[in-house]
Write a structure and sequence with these properties.
The radius of gyration is 27 Å and the shape is globular. The protein is an alpha/beta fold. Helix content is 42%, strand content 14%. A 7-stranded mixed beta sheet has the order 7-6-8-9-11-10-15, with helices on both faces. It has a 5-stranded parallel beta sheet with strand order 1-2-3-5-4, with helices on both faces. The protein has a 5-stranded mixed beta sheet with strand order 12-14-13-16-17, with helices on both faces. It has 3 domains: 5-291, 3-Layer(aba) Sandwich (Rossmann fold); 318-471, Thiamin diphosphate (ThDP)-binding fold, Pyr/PP domains (Rossmann fold, 3-Layer(aba) Sandwich); 495-625, 3-Layer(aba) Sandwich (Rossmann fold). The protein contains 26 helices and 17 strands. α17 (367-379) runs parallel beside α19. Bound molecules: thiamine diphosphate. Residues 46, 49, 72, 74-75, 116-117, 145-148, 173, 175, 177-179, 282, 342-343, 365, 367, 392, 395 line the site of thiamine diphosphate.
């Protein structure tokens, strides 16, 4: 029998199906997602959890006239498949292929570009307001997970929406999971709603019961109506949404398409802000993902039968080396505490959480709070380590500057996934941290050349009485041996790895090993190339820069960061400040957002691998001769 899915080239085809056919369509979509993501990698668990919800949304609403705004966007695979991208789905997350997130450039059905969480209600409210201003009758629907709802920004948006009362539907996709199990008071409150009865049903039952009491029934019922706020808060702790001005509907079973369709049809034409609470299961329909939704949140390619990951080069990831080193340090130093913003496993803190539960904090997806919370702990003598991906620390710029660095508090920022991240693409690349942190006084900023140096850098930070940031790349380490004992590194000193007299390459972090390889290639071509592991962006080793500037014909800097305001810019400033004249070539990311592809492909495209560095060195020497 021909698959239903083969007939769906857009939501209008979906609407031709009967409600009875929709569960079969859901199965076919799941099959396509599992099959594809097992080859491409991706955010499978979140996407499997919302297949029925996505079908129901497109069945009832008329996209793109009606606007569906996905939060984070990692759950939008079924949306992509239903909106004309079924055939292209096999190119998911690959260079030149479909993005793993909604992208306006990709489809008219993708209303808002996303990758960072908790933006959907704000963006949807902006769209709802624009509909009012333009006199347009589009419905606007934000779909947000319970994890993403832990961020302050989501509450800022709810607060505003409840105030201005535009027609806005917020679908809360509640699977009780962020990446790990969700945390926080709101999360417990939502679970109480799920485990209790639906508030609306409960309220009606109480009302009719009261009214049946002869004599006093009616007056008690009137009193109850007047004190409905009291009733809500006593019986239904999740009534926060109603207090914020939303009409709360739910909870609705999120894998029953018929129920979803009924509820969405009912609320479609309701006025004002509505919150529909939908209960789903993360990883639904793929057993390994249902059993371990944290692992299957975002995965590389895997064996679809067993769920086991494809083999890697065997070296531990930077994340793991950091997590292991921190546990060792914390065992000797009871002041060390660790903080994550909803990314316990992603940042390598699971071991720390198990061994020191009393000194571990998952604050939810709340990067701003995480940093100021760390500042508070540091102000009272603790040594907080905030492990946050480079891209997500962008959320906390003012907290880093105003709450930590201005008070010179010894908070350690561990910036995982700094540099090119690969398949997750532009929203997740950690290419800005050097530019936005380098200008902040009091901050020491380092980048290890390999996983062994990462542990030494971490140990060094606890010798300092000021804020420190360490940036390190996504993925496995270089494969070097890990020293058993930690070594303290001299702050502000670069390490000369190879001497040379033609060119000096100042490499930072992940670019050090490719620079060494490039120097070897060049030496076989008769070019003498020094390689310096810069180690510190701040304080920069200006002396080493100037010393090489005096003896070589050109200096080349290499970094996985934007060129603007990056490490190379710091080298230029150091030369200028010292009155040294040198030819300088900077390798890094030019003034544009970097697209998706494998890390290898993207590094090659921007000249950040050994071949690219060697070619740049040859180029600058050839120019000089010309
Ligand atoms: C600002 C920000 N911080 C962290 C992340 C990493 N992240 C991606 S999805 C996710 C969990 C989201 O949970 P939820 O909204 O409940 O969606 P689910 O995956 O459960 O469907 C996190 C922490 C992010 N995308 N953006």
């Amino acid at each position: 029998m021909e698959k239903l899915l083969n007939k769906i080239n857009g939501p209008e085809d979906l609407r031709k199906l009967s409600i009875k056919e929709l569960p079969l369509l859901a199965e076919e979509i799941r099959e396509l997602i599992i099959d594809t993501v097992s080859k491409t990698g991706g955010h499978i668990a979140a996407s499997l959890g919302v297949v029925e919800l996505t079908i129901a949304l497109h069945y009832i609403f008329n996209a793109p006239h009606d606007k569906i705004v996905w939060d984070v966007g990692h759950q939008a695979y079924a949306h992509k498949i239903l909106t004309g991208r079924r055939e292209a789905f096999s190119t998911l997350r690959q260079m030149g292929g479909l993005s793993g997130f909604p992208k306006r450039e990709e489809s008219q059905y993708d209303t808002f570009n996303v990758g960072h969480s908790s933006t959907s209600i704000s963006a949807a409210l902006g769209m709802a307001e624009s509909c009012r201003l333009k006199g347009q009758d589009s419905k606007v629907i934000a779909v947000i997970g319970d994890g993403s709802l832990t961020a302050g920004m989501a509450f800022e948006a709810l607060n505003h929406a409840g105030h201005i009362k535009r027609n806005l539907i917020v679908v809360l996709n509640d699977n009780e999971m962020s990446i790990s199990p969700n945390v926080g008071a709101l999360s417990s409150s939502l679970s109480r709603i799920i485990s209790g009865q639906s508030y609306n049903k409960f309220r009606d039952e109480i009302k009719s019961m009261l009214e049946k009491i002869p004599g006093i029934g009616e007056s008690v019922s009137r009193l109850a109506r007047q004190s409905e706020g009291f009733f809500k808060s006593v019986f239904v702790p999740g009534m926060l949404f109603e207090e914020l001005g939303f009409v709360y509907i739910g909870p609705v079973l999120g894998h029953r398409i018929d129920m979803l369709v009924d509820n969405l049809r009912n609320i479609k034409n309701m006025k004002g802000p509505i919150l529909l609470h939908v209960i789903t299961k993360k990883g639904k329909g793929y057993k390994p993902a249902e059993e371990d939704p944290t692992y299957f949140h975002g995965v590389g390619a895997f064996d679809r039968e067993t769920g086991k990951p494809a083999p890697s080069n065997g070296a531990p990831s930077y994340t793991k080396v950091f997590g292991d080193a921190l546990v060792r340090i914390a065992a000797d130093n009871s002041k060390v505490v660790a903080i994550t913003a909803g990314m316990t496993s992603g940042t390598g803190l699971e071991k720390f959480q198990q061994q020191f539960p009393d000194r571990f904090y998952d604050v939810g997806i709340a990067e701003q709070h995480a940093i100021t919370f760390a500042a508070g702990l540091a102000a009272e003598g603790f040594r907080p380590v905030a492990a946050i991906y480079s891209t997500f620390l962008q959320r906390s710029f003012d907290q880093v500057l105003h709450d930590v660095c201005m008070q010179n508090l010894p908070v350690v920022f561990m910036l995982d996934r700094a540099g090119i991240v690969g398949e997750d693409g532009p929203t997740h690349n950690g290419l800005f941290d050097i530019s936005f942190l380098r200008s902040i006084p009091n901050l020491v900023f380092m980048a290890p050349a390999d996983e062994n140096e990462l542990q030494h850098m971490l140990a060094t930070t606890f010798e300092l009485k000021q804020p420190v940031a360490i940036r390190y790349p996504r993925g496995t380490g270089v494969g070097v041996l890990l020293d058993r004992d930690f070594r303290l590194l001299p702050v502000g000193k670069a390490e000369i790895l190879m001497d040379g007299h033609d060119v000096a390459v100042f490499a930072l972090g992940s670019t050090v090993h490719p620079a060494l390889e490039a120097a070897q290639q060049l030496s076989s071509q008769g070019i003498s190339c020094a390689v310096v592991n810069a180690r510190f962006v701040k304080p920069l080793d200006g002396e080493a820069v100037c010393a090489f500037a005096r003896k070589v014909r050109a200096i080349v800097t290499v970094e996985e960061n934007m060129l603007q305001g990056g490490f190379g810019s710091a080298v230029l400033e150091a030369l200028q400040d010292a009155g040294c004249v040198a030819r300088v070539l900077r390798i890094g990311i030019p003034d544009r957002f970097v697209e998706q592809g494998t890390q290898k492909q993207i590094r090659a495209a921007y000249g950040l691998d050994a071949d690219g560095i060697a070619a740049a060195v040859r180029g600058i020497l050839a120019n000089e001769q010309g």
